[in-house]
Amino acid sequence: MDSRPSLFLILEDHPEVAQNNCLFLQKLHPEAICEIAHAPAEALERLKLEIPDLIIVDLLFGTSTGEQSAQPCLELLRQIFQGYPMLNILIYTSEYRYLKPLSKLLGRHKGGFVVVSKLERRKAYLDGVKHALEGKLEIPRELRHDIDLDEREMQVLNLLGREALTDKAIAQRMNISLKTAQNSVQRLKAKLGIDFLDENDTSTRVALCMEAVRRKLIVL
């Protein structure tokens, strides 16, 4: 069993903010090791040396002209999607709209991918860290329009919608772990916009199937 401490990589160009983020992470994981990269190129070099359990990315970085740009971080994310498909990612920003050009790519990413607004309380940040480490997909509604389902998610959707299988039965049928099956169902709900529904009032599994039929993703 792997007993090494968790490794977090924080990409942030403001040293005080980066250090504060480290302190909050260590409240959640006291034994965690935090590494700080002050530029996207530095973060990429660190990834080549060791894969962290989670990378936390602030999208906007200062430029030589004094302005802020998201392009360096967007390019980093493209390289992560291509070279590190299982890496867990937390985007910590108040400008998530910059992610729209990457919608299709982030939809195919197999690691956790969570977007948390800097305008939220710190609890939302820590919840985002936890959910990203669990492999969940949590993104704002505005980013979901072009997101595709991958092959595994389509298999899960068919077993859930056409055969009404439980997560455990889906895991057994597909020869995957229960956690993987549960994550696939959660990601389906996120991609199809069902995760915003109140589960006290709505059966989200039924709503998921209804939305899949409406979009002609499955035929009953």
UniProtKB/TrEMBL annotation:
Organism the protein comes from: Tumidithrix elongata BACA0141
Top-level taxon in the UniProt lineage: Bacteria
Protein name as annotated: LuxR C-terminal-related transcriptional regulator
Gene3D superfamilies, sorted: 3.40.50.2300, Winged helix-like DNA-binding domain superfamily/Winged helix DNA-binding domain
Keywords recorded for this protein, A-Z: DNA-binding, Phosphoprotein, Transcription, Transcription regulation
Record-linked InterPro entries: CheY-like_superfamily, Sig_transdc_resp-reg_C-effctor, Sig_transdc_resp-reg_receiver, Tscrpt_reg_LuxR_C, WH-like_DNA-bd_sf
Response regulatory domain location: 7-133
Listed PROSITE patterns: RESPONSE_REGULATORY
MF terms in GO: DNA binding
One of the GO BP terms on file: regulation of DNA-templated transcription
Residues with the 4-aspartylphosphate modification: D58
